[in-house]
Amino acid sequence: MLTLQHLYIIEKITSEGSVTKAAEKLNLTQSALSHQIRDLEAASGVKLFNRIGKKLVLNEAGQRVVSSSQKVLPVIRELEAELKEMREGKKQTIRISTECYTCYHWLPRLLIDFHGEYPGTDIQIVAEATRRPMEYLEAGKLELALVNGTNHNSSLHFEPLFEDRMVALLSDKHPLAMRNMPLEFSDLHSETLVAFQISSDSNLLSPDLVSQLSPQKIIHIPMTEAIVEMVRFGMGITIMAEWAARQYLSTSGLTTLPFRSEIGTRHWYACTHKDRSDALSRLVSKMQSALLGTENPAMG
Q: Are 78 and 199 in the same domain?
């Protein structure tokens, strides 16, 4: 069977025009190269050279091998160069996803500075992984997951990024809004909670939090914009991060209320595999510098 080494040898013999010069370029003795040529012909099963005196001249089979090697070797060299750049951190793709659709708006300005240091690194946001970023990360389909919790997987590394406080978003004509006081959990016992949910196993609000609120009715909607409109028209109350809710307050008919008790402050982490590239480590570091200790990544 022909190998890449065989193709490199026949390429060098052809380009140099003689076995002597090819041997010099390959740092081989003439006898060692002659042995390699015999191996090459044995591997191909046919003679590739006609021996005319002391010269080797390609025959038809040899010319076919050279023609094919001229197509194969440039591709191999390009691949080797790309892999070398990846090893050195000069060229790679970092795939990112987060458990919250609204967590991406602070990312572009951070990436401008990052790309100045790592111009060959491509950042891709994998939106379909939003439902279950940890599954994608563990399966090798992500390099970075932004999540609001940790687990005990020993191969993963969690680094804190920021916290966000949960508030109620409701119609400004709602009786609770007219009262204009911090909410008790019991205030929601007689209310309809409009909650974000993509699938039966993917909820923005934790089961513990929903249990504490104990609303009279829960409506699950997979679109934040639809949730906000339902709330604006008094069809229920929703719970979201304060910084995320703030962007909707410019819409007429909406307001927010805090909770009197500490409720659902979420702790966000950058999760990666422990064995990670320098570029990925640097990206996480930049995220920490920009976000750590803030409650509002929109303003950080």
A: no
